[in-house]
From TrEMBL:
Family recorded in the similarity comment: Belongs to the ATP-dependent AMP-binding enzyme family.
Highest taxon, organism lineage: Bacteria
Alphabetic keyword roster: Ligase
GO MF term list: medium-chain fatty acid-CoA ligase activity
Species of origin: Klenkia soli
Coiled coil: none
Gene Ontology terms describing biological process: fatty acid metabolic process
Leader peptide range in chain numbering: none
Protein name: AMP-binding enzyme
Length: 336
């Protein structure tokens, strides 16, 4: 097998992907996980090219379109968008003023709205993390058209919608939830990790694959993603899955919430909820009836803006450190 090209190490990653495609060789893409160590995902360029027509149709991106990518090309979602734009005959522009399209993380979208960045008339693709309905509606109220997709570096596209609450299978993708875990079968899957590396990507003999994200699939085909089941807080001997708590709090409060564990001398850790919208946090705190006693946050923190990784995603490790170090505004008293 031809050795994969580390396209992100190239001076021009877009050109490196195009050259690999012309040569028929695989590429390696380093992941940008917010809580885990980066690893290199190996895939054929055909696994990207095959999805280009569907993305063009969903976003109306074609010849003459002008795409703004505020995030770095080292993030695979941005590199994919840049390569797709080249394939479609679109141009990359340096800012939103001249743009017809933009690709943003939810955190970057929130910051753009807070800063008054002109988004009216633009087609936004928001990915890299879950897009809550409240934030999506803010962008729509600002005059933007919003598309949101769920996927993973190992799986590529899995589902598309306007926010996390209306995601349906991306064209060409079959979805299944087995024992609470999201599985997919599609022509867009990667080949796995670089030699000597390991990660959550698993495949079954029938062609289905997963990275371990948990979720549910409704009878009418809407995929509700809870998150990676491995992230947990251990409090008083109970293991609390972060994804399940965050999902319940988002339903109750309508805003984005990050759940972390903060050290406690007697209980080991306390479940803590952190958000940038104080009103949404208060609503979430008042609506935690669906959670067990162990799952209910005992600390509630507010911060003005999310700390971000280099890829523009919420830096969960930094959030946990801020909470543990007492550097966040505490909204309510809890267990001591």
């Amino acid at each position: 097998m031809t050795a994969p090209v580390d396209v992100l190490a190239a001076a021009d990653p877009v050109a490196a992907v195009l050259a690999a495609h012309a040569a028929g060789g695989p590429i390696a893409l380093r992941t940008s996980g917010t809580t885990s160590q980066p690893r290199a995902v190996v895939r054929s360029t055909a696994s990207w090219w095959t999805s280009f027509p569907a993305v063009s149709e969903l976003t109306a991106l074609g010849t003459g379109a002008r795409l703004w990518l505020p995030g770095p090309l080292q993030a695979s979602m941005n590199l994919f968008a840049a390569v797709h734009a080249r394939w479609a005959g679109a141009l990359l522009v340096d800012g939103p003023d001249a743009a017809t399209h933009a690709v943003l993380t939810p955190a970057a979208l929130s910051a753009a709205l807070d800063d008054g960045v002109p988004l009216a008339g633009r087609q936004l693709v928001v990915a890299g993390d879950r897009l809550g309905r409240v934030l999506a509606d803010r962008a729509i109220a600002a005059g933007a058209r919003v598309g949101h997709y769920y996927g993973a570096a190992e799986l590529s596209f899995l589902a598309w919608g306007t926010a996390e609450d209306d995601l349906r299978a991306f064209p060409g993708v079959e979805l299944s939830v087995r024992d609470g875990v999201v599985w997919a079968r599609s022509p867009y899957l990667s080949a796995g990790y670089a030699p000597g590396q390991d990660g959550p990507f698993r495949t079954a003999p029938d062609g289905w694959a997963t990275v371990g994200d948990r979720g549910t699939l409704t009878e009418d085909g809407v995929l509700l993603v809870a998150g990676r089941g491995a992230d947990a807080v251990t409090t008083a001997g109970a293991t609390v899955l972060v994804a399940e708590v965050e999902q319940a709090l988002r339903r109750a409060g309508g805003g984005d919430v990050v759940v972390v564990g903060v050290p406690h001398p007697r209980l080991g850790q306390l479940v803590a909820a952190v958000g940038t919208d104080a009103a949404a946090l208060a609503a979430a705190r008042a609506g935690v009836a669906d959670l067990t006693a162990a799952q209910r946050p005992r600390r509630w923190f507010h911060l003005p803006r999310w700390p971000l990784t280099a890829a523009g995603k919420v830096d969960r490790r930094a959030v946990a450190d801020l909470a543990a170090d007492g550097r966040l505004e505490r909204l309510a008293a809890g267990v001591t």
